[in-house]
Amino acid sequence: MFEPNIHLPTSVSVKHLNSSVWTIFLFTLLAVLLATHTFADDPCKNISDLDDKAKCYEEQIEKKEDEYQSTSSKLSQIRETKNQITQKISGLLSQISVTQAEIDDLQNEITKIKKQLDEINAILADRKTSLAEKISLRNKVVRTYSKRHLLNDIETFLVTNASTGLNGFQFATLSQAFNTAVTDETIKIITGLNSEIDSYEKDKAEGEKLKGELEDTQKEFLAAKAELDARKNSAQGELSNVTGDEKEVEGKLGEIEEDLADLTSKQQAVLQAKSGDFSASLSEGVETDDSRTDPGYNPGFSPAFGSFSYGAYTHRNGMSQYGAKGRAEDGQSFEEILEYYYETGIEKKDGLDGKTICVQGVGDMKMGEYLRGLGEMPPSWDTDALKAQAIAARTYAYNKTKDGGCICTSTSCQYFSSSLMNRDDRKRWYEAIKADDTKDRILKGGVSAQYSSTTGGWINGVGWDITDGGSWPNDAYEKKAESPWFYKAWFTQTYKRDSSTCGRKHPWLNGEEMADILNAYVLLKANKNTSRILPETINKCPIAGMSGDPYDKEELRGKAKSVDSNAGYENVTGVKNIKFNDGRTTTLTFITDKGEKQVDGQIFAEAFNIRAPGYIAIKHTPDSKALFNILKK
């Protein structure tokens, strides 16, 4: 290794030691010191021009300084990232669950930091090799500098140097200049080396500290991962244990779903059969003499509860036939009657009654002949009611056949019988059809022209069918016209008085039976344990051909109590606060052995029809609202 000896050159002739030579000499010394010991792989060592070599070394020094700043910046970034990871792990440890994605992200970040530390360590290792040489150089420079022999100023001044040909004064001057230059450059080298060594030691210590902290952080991470794996394995074990049970339960659920579908269809069949799932007109022969269904009937016990329906077998669309009768008796014209129910006027279609239409089971016939065979309204009624019926019936038939279709002859369309076409007791009907103000006339606007016998005093899209200034139900036109279906309790299998009653003598229920229906209401409203809510009499008296496995009263009571601790009713002693709005019963309140219970009118009507014994029912079609009253005697 190069080892400089700093002393005055004695073999050089003084006459050649001009300023240029001294400058070259000093720069060469500095360059050799720096070039030999500052860079392990010296890219400047082969440059012959000293000025270019000096510039090269300046660039290399600047490059190393930039590299150092970059390394320090990386260390700061790693410190920040490490702190972020530590916070993440702390957060994960405090969580109930940790996702595998979060663990993978942490592992990737830690791996990235390790890679960056490895790069920094490689840089530091390179610097360490370089610094080892620099430290050796620094120590040698210091030793040499401290050992060099210099004459004191008096000796230098007085002594004449024979080898140089200089007197004492001249030699002292030259010696001082050279000595000052060497001293300054040597101190710069030592100071620079000391600074670089100090920064290296700091960076190395910081890197080692970060490495230790990262290892601790990774241990925490691995502990978190182990905890997650344990929870995951535990969960997987639990999942494995229930897999077999799950399949078994799925099979049972399939069977139960089939049973529920079957039971639901049974309940719907019961609802439709009890509610009255068709619309009846006066052709059905509305009966008026069943005193058992009258509010004044005495069932022979108390308290007794009767469910009275307002209207029956009705969709509540269009004209009420009994309402038209009441309006005609009140002096309204057929135009006024039709305007109220259909909210439209009348138009004439010339020759319509002479046009041929298709009648199912009969064949082709003229519209006018078809109308003669309709049995939709008693011919004894007021003329304006008959005329309103004639125009509504013609409109309905026109809509059904105008595009080439056929019209049926049952009450699903309009009741028709050839036997009604030529009878002396029907002359008033025939006259209503062919009157100058009704012949060939239909309702405007393509209205459906639906109608039914008794709506209960409410017309969909129109409102309460009552007298001007009157109130429902007392001033309803159907009540004025004395419709027997306006307010009636139903308990026969069909609308015929002589149809089956399932052994019951009347439609009245006792307190225990009403409480039983109230318990059914509790389950239906909560939509729980509803599958066996059927009449207890369903097997004795099948409804729509359906039988089943209904709850008995005690079972149903227990089910209701399990849903609502205040339920499980045993007896009902009264009813009050029955409210109506927009053609439906909205709420009513029962007085029970467990206190008062307010119920939703529509849900209660459903519960009543599904659970009430025999054929007792609140009549309303499934697509209409239930309008009813519960009467206590």
From TrEMBL:
> Which residue ranges does the record assign to the Sporulation stage II protein D amidase enhancer LytB N-terminal domain?
362-442
Matching InterPro entries: SpoIID/LytB_N (IPR013693)
List the SUPFAM superfamilies. Myosin rod fragments
* Pfam short name (any one): SpoIID
What keywords are annotated for this sequence in UniProt? Coiled coil
Q: Which residues form a coiled coil?
A: 47-123, 197-266
Q: Could you name the domain of life of the organism this protein comes from? A: Bacteria
Keyword Coiled coil listed? yes
Task: Work out whether the entry's keyword set contains Coiled coil.
Answer: yes
Protein's name in the database:
Sporulation stage II protein D amidase enhancer LytB N-terminal domain-containing protein
Species per Swiss-Prot/TrEMBL record: candidate division WWE3 bacterium
